[in-house]
Amino acid sequence: MAGDAQNYATDRGTATTLHDLSDGPLRGHSVRAMTDFPDWIQPMAATLTQERFTGDEWTFERKLDGIRLLAFKQGDDVRLFSRTQNAQHLPAISAAVAALPAREVVLDGELTWDRHSGFHVFDILWLDGRDLRELPLTERRRLLDAFNFHTPLHRVTPLDDVEPWTRACAEGWEGVIAKRLDSRYEEKRSKLWLKMKCEVTHRFVVGGFTDPQGARKGLGALLVGYFDGDDFVFAGKVGTGFDTKLLNELRARFDAIEVERTPFTKATGLPRVREHWVKPEVVVRVAFIEWTRHTKLRHSRLLAVETDIDPRTVVRSAP
Hints:
- The chain is of the alpha+beta class.
- Helices cover 16% and strands 35% of the residues.
- Strands 11, 12, 13, 14, 15, 16 and 19 form a 7-stranded antiparallel β-sheet that branches. Strands 3, 4, 5, 6, 7 and 8 form a 6-stranded mixed β-sheet that branches.
- Strand 5 and strand 6 form a beta hairpin.
- It starts with a helix and ends in a 13-residue tail after the last strand.
């Protein structure tokens, strides 16, 4: 198999064995000592964030809408697993992984939902007897660069957009993943990888708020809703997207229109402690990921307080 792999590398103009790479990405870096080939590696998971940012220490990739897939190649044997370690029978992808110029390799990526369009590879965790998880992402990517993938294998390439999340939403993607360039591969949900999902924006009317906790000033979260005929329907809480100045300004405004009873006429999940109710007069614009199955906002954040909008015109938009 080693000879076949070397011939493949020569034919494709690539060099992917540890011997060939000793003067490249592996030099000066700590890779784990030679160990037995792993039966399983828990995939690193990204943490959802509502922040939008860029920086020299971060890189971005398209978040593919598919199934997480890890490929384990040991000699002629190829095993494919989902995120939950369920074996996957994908003959075309198995054959393509088997043909890669390496005796041993573990690849991490995403399988398209149709299970035929391809395996989109974004990380390499093991190569020819070496555990690469302690290498920074930049060096793991350099190792991936040595492979010349062919359909149904595809390389996930970094995005160079100024606002990659804006492109994602414009092109109908699920979102983007922000990854620290120095990140090691952690077998857990990590804040070194962050998910920025495309959001829905919607107007809502404030019907109440909660008291702040800890060092927070002004208020804790807005309680928002929309009108459905004569009913005022509770849609959920909005607790992020404020600065201290806005929190204090809103609290003063709400104190002036506070009422004793909830204005919501259709409501489940209303808070029962530290809650305050206000006349449904203030309109806000909110971003959120999706509606839950209980028709509540998931991962919402305040975008703006709007003016000159009649609260009675705020209804739920079609999904």
